[in-house]
Structure formats: structure tokens, C-alpha cells
Write a structure and sequence with these properties.
With 116 residues, the protein is α/β, with parallel strands linked by helices. It has a single domain, classed as Rossmann fold (3-Layer(aba) Sandwich). It has four helices and six strands; from the N terminus they run βαβαβαβαββ. A six-stranded mixed beta sheet has the order 2-1-3-4-5-6, sandwiched between helices.
């Protein structure tokens, strides 16, 4: 899978995704870095067929209006990097399966929500 990790999440998350066999970029890898406008993040995700990993509800609003881009919303509130990695580790097989048939997932501390 191909991911684009948004600015409010740690670059370390993109590294973790790469270590687990995925193609991952962080907004810091883009020309404008963490100053990349949301519209450019969306354009990059669409161009490269990437799933945007974000905490930003603006991407949810865009998805609800346009159905784009594929989205993994991290809805955990404040969480340590290590806790986030453990959460993803536990849920990655289900995330991979779910993105086979949907385009918007939300992960909380206790659940993976598939938005049809």
C-alpha cells in the first residue's frame, strides 16, 4: 500500500510504514514540507494513488464532499508515538483488508471504523 502521512503526525510513522513493507511519504518529503497546503496533499495522493494518514478533520470534510482521497483518520486524541505504532501494528492486517473495498477508515484507541 502507498501512504502519505500528514504534517500533524510524526515522520517516524512514515518510517514505521516503510519498515512494514509499505510505500510511505511524509509531508516533510514534499517540496513545501509541513507547509504543504491540504489541496496539494490531496493532489499528490491522487496522482500517486496514496492513502492520506491524518488527524485533520478538513480531510474528512473533503472526503465527504468528493470521495477523495482515500483516507486513514487517526482519531485517538493525544497519543505517544510508541502507542500509535502499537495500535497500527495490531490493526494493520484489518486496515489492509478494509482498504480493498473502502476508501475511508478511522482508527480509535479501541476500534477500527470502516466508513462505507
Amino acid at each position: 500500500m502507498k501512504f502519505l502521512v500528514d504534517a500533524q503526525l510524526p515522520r517516524r510513522l512514515a518510517g514505521w510504514l516503510k519498515q512494514h513493507g509499505h510505500d510511505a511519504l511524509h509531508t516533510l518529503d514534499l517540496p513545501l514540507g509541513n507547509r504543504t497546503p491540504d489541496a496539494d496533499v490531496v493532489s499528490c495522493a491522487l496522482r500517486d494513488d496514496r492513502i492520506v494518514v491524518t488527524k485533520d478533520s478538513d480531510f474528512v470534510q473533503n472526503f465527504l464532499l468528493t470521495g477523495q482521497p482515500a483516507l486513514l483518520l487517526i482519531a485517538t486524541g493525544n497519543i505517544s508515538n510508541a502507542e500509535l505504532e502499537r495500535l497500527l501494528q495490531r490493526n494493520m492486517p484489518a486496515i489492509e483488508r478494509a482498504f480493498g473495498s473502502c476508501r475511508y477508515l478511522e482508527i480509535t484507541r479501541s476500534a477500527l471504523v470502516v466508513h462505507e
